[in-house]
């Protein structure tokens, strides 16, 4: 797509008054010196007129000089207008929804310097629905309230090659109110995660659009759908810190310790992971079933379970290990607490609250859960497929630009309930 350049209109040259002598009277008169012509305006659009078989994720590229874009009007074959908005910086105009397969569209763009206007038009048609589509999912639900460490996680049913990741990432839009900066990080070819340099501010409204329907994803494959969600971050910052040294969980609310409770972590043969995790899912009751898996085989009913990793580490009620809690580690990797403490945690925490485990000697594996916060900001931004703006490389100097991400419903992928116990 074309770069969109805006040039400030040259300042109008002030009239220069030059004294002249009148032929009739000899008295001097004043006349304005000729002013230079205003700079020429240019406006170019892509796709070029009559292009065919474009993806339904097509955007309108705009290159303009000596003017700024005033209006963009896109209409389908029946004359119905398609809403959309300019990208930050104006490199292109993005429709608010994916276009229709085998559709025909016309576009008219007008730019102006405040006195003169220039208009250009183009038209194009889109491709038929592709047979090879990559499934997409987003871990964010409309109207839910999450903890301050909730990342935005988008997953894919197939590997996205490195050559296609920049284009895919460019179609992932996030806005926050109040504005906070953020960057996407590819945890793997099947998962990309978004976070800010610091935890979200309590009360933040988070709006996301994974505008991936029809986006080329390499190997003749295309994204299956657009997914949107608007959610809220909790009004309080709740953090859990688990120390193996004293085998206690400390709970902090807005930086103040409000509770400490004994815990039993993973035994030597099945240690708990050390690192900063995020509560991924909460289930008041569930079944932990490891039959058919390596190691111990069991199927047990569990209450007040909160998932921390895909590998099966949870915080949960474990009345059978109350005598060990605070004294020794006996679990298969989970954080065992008493029934009463499990209920209290379940009632006070959110999906998205951070849980930091210290001192187990086993490092949390990247991607084993929502692990975006288990790395420094400097490390995190290295995982972006797009250039990171200079002001986001230094967290204290960053600012968020608006993006074309209207709020709407989400279609998240739900985590499975399987895990370990005791």
Automatic annotation (TrEMBL):
Residues 398-422 have a biased composition (Low complexity). The lineage of its organism: Bacteria, Bacillati, Actinomycetota, Actinomycetes, Micromonosporales. One of its GO terms (molecular function) is peptidoglycan L,D-transpeptidase activity. Gene3D superfamilies: 2.60.40.3710, 2.60.40.3780, L,D-transpeptidase catalytic domain-like (2.40.440.10). Residues 387-422 are annotated as: Disordered. Keywords: Acyltransferase, Cell shape, Cell wall biogenesis/degradation, Peptidoglycan synthesis, Transferase. Signal peptide: none annotated. The active site is at 316 (proton donor/acceptor), 334 (nucleophile). GO terms for biological process: cell wall organization; peptidoglycan-protein cross-linking; regulation of cell shape. CDD domains: LDT_IgD_like_2 (cd13432), YkuD_like (cd16913). This is L,D-TPase catalytic domain-containing protein.
């Amino acid at each position: 797509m074309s770069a969109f350049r805006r040039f400030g209109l040259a300042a109008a040259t002030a009239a220069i008054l030059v004294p002249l002598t009148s032929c009739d009277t000899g008295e001097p008169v004043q006349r304005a010196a000729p002013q230079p012509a205003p700079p020429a305006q240019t406006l170019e659009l892509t796709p070029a007129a009559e292009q065919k078989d474009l993806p339904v994720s097509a955007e309108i590229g705009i290159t303009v000089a000596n003017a700024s874009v005033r209006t963009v009007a896109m209409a389908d074959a029946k004359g119905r207008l398609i809403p959309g908005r300019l990208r930050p910086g104006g490199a292109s105009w993005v429709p608010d929804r994916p276009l229709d397969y085998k559709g025909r569209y016309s576009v008219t763009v007008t730019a102006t310097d405040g006195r003169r206007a220039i208009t250009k038009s183009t038209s194009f048609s889109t491709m038929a629905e592709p047979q090879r589509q990559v499934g997409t999912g987003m871990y964010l639900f409309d109207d839910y309230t999450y903890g301050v460490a909730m990342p935005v996680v988008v997953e894919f049913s197939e590997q996205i090659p490195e050559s296609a990741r920049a284009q895919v990432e460019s179609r992932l839009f996030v806005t926050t109110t109040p504005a906070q900066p953020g960057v996407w990080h590819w945890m793997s070819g099947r998962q990309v995660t978004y976070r800010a340099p610091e935890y979200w501010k309590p009360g933040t409204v988070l709006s996301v659009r994974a505008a991936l329907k029809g986006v080329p994803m390499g190997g003749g494959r295309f994204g299956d759908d657009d997914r949107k969600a608007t959610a809220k971050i909790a009004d309080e910052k709740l953090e859990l810190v688990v120390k193996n040294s004293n085998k206690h969980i400390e709970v902090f609310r807005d930086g103040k310790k409000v509770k400490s409770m004994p815990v039993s972590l993973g035994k030597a043969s099945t240690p708990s992971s050390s690192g900063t995790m995020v509560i991924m899912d909460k289930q008041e009751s569930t079944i932990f079933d490891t039959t058919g898996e390596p190691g111990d085989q069991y199927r047990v009913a569990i209450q007040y379970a909160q998932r921390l990793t895909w590998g099966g580490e949870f915080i949960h009620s474990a009345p059978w290990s109350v005598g060990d809690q605070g004294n020794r580690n006996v679990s298969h990797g989970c954080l065992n607490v008493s029934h009463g403490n499990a209920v209290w945690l379940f009632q006070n925490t959110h999906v998205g609250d951070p849980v930091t485990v210290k001192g187990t000697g086993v490092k949390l594996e990247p991607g084993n859960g929502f692990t975006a916060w288990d790395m420094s900001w400097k490390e995190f931004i290295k995982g972006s497929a797009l250039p990171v703006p200079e002001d986001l490389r230094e967290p204290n100097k960053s600012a968020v630009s608006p993006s074309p991400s209207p709020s709407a419903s989400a279609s998240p992928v739900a985590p499975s309930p399987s895990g370990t116990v005791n």
